[in-house]
Write a structure and sequence with these properties.
The chain is mainly beta. It is built from two helices and ten strands; from the N terminus they run αβββββββαβββ. It has a single domain, classed as Immunoglobulin-like (Sandwich). The protein is 14% helix and 47% strand. The strands form two sheets. Strands 1, 3, 5, 6, 9 and 10 form a six-stranded mixed sheet that branches. The protein binds 2-acetamido-2-deoxy-beta-D-glucopyranose (NAG).
Length: 150
């Protein structure tokens, strides 16, 4: 009984930290190592009830040191439109300290809130997560993966 409980708990922890499969959608400045979405794994599409929040964690290595701003953003592509979702916290520089002074693997976790009433249409959509830099919001990295909104 005790052992079974421990195994179940361990199984849940492993499921929570399993990296998911994603596509690289461009950007200059980072190489992404892994993307984790709270409660999701790579063996099925990530299911997210509309209105909920999920923590998205990205591990990446920077190829550039000079960033003075980095903002994390998330979008859903729906009917050919891109809908922005709230990300908190979204100031990556505040967390890492900018400009980045060395080249190393860094982790950033933020909560993505699936807020929009338009998302009440359930179905499989692409979620895009990226970091943008500067006033012109140049893309520093971009990953995308399917989510099943429910
Ligand atoms: C959802 O969040 C986005 C980005 O912050 C905002 O523009 C939009 O108005 C929000 N939608 C709703 C229904 O609150």
């Amino acid at each position: 009984m005790g052992v079974q409980l421990v195994l179940v708990v361990l199984g849940c922890m492993v499921a929570l930290v399993t990296p998911i499969n994603y596509d690289d959608c461009g950007g200059n400045g980072f190489v992404v190592n892994s993307v984790d979405v709270q409660g999701c794994s790579d063996d099925s599409t990530c299911r997210i009830p509309v209105g909920e929040t999920r923590t998205v964690t990205v591990r990446s290595v920077n190829e550039v040191t000079g960033f003075s701003s980095l903002q994390s953003k998330a979008y859903i592509i729906l009917m050919g439109h891109s809908w922005e979702l709230p990300v908190t916290p979204n100031d990556v520089c505040l967390h890492w300290g900018c400009p980045l002074s060395d080249y190393s693997t860094r982790t950033y976790s933020a909560n993505v809130h699936f807020n929009d009433t338009l998302l009440r249409r359930p179905g499989q959509l692409m979620l895009t997560v990226k970091y943008v830099t500067g006033e012109d919001e140049k893309v520093a990295f971009c990953v995308r993966f399917p989510v099943d909104l429910q």
